[in-house]
Amino acid sequence: MEFTGTWHIYEMSNWDDEYFNMEVQAYIEIDEQGNGEFQFGLVTGYIDGDIVKDGSANKLEFTWEGNDENDEASGSGWLKLEDENELEGKIKFHQGDSSTLLAKRA
To answer: Does residue 11 surpass a pLDDT of 90?
Structure first.
């Protein structure tokens, strides 16, 4: 599965790198079933994803549950490969903020 692996987030539209790399190098990790985890800033979450067709490419659409500064949080998002080592995506908090992101394969 082309999304499998660890991806380092290097850009987010809603937060700067000082925030999103605050505790660890911001990342998304995806397993072969499309599930995984992520952390940016003080937000951590577990991903439940599905591959869907988006034109001629695949997109990993997901929901997530986790924490934002120790408060329960959840939301949705998607990831799409730009090439084999870079992806773009979006992460959204349920009834809250959202941000696009760019990430490179670790």
So the answer is: yes
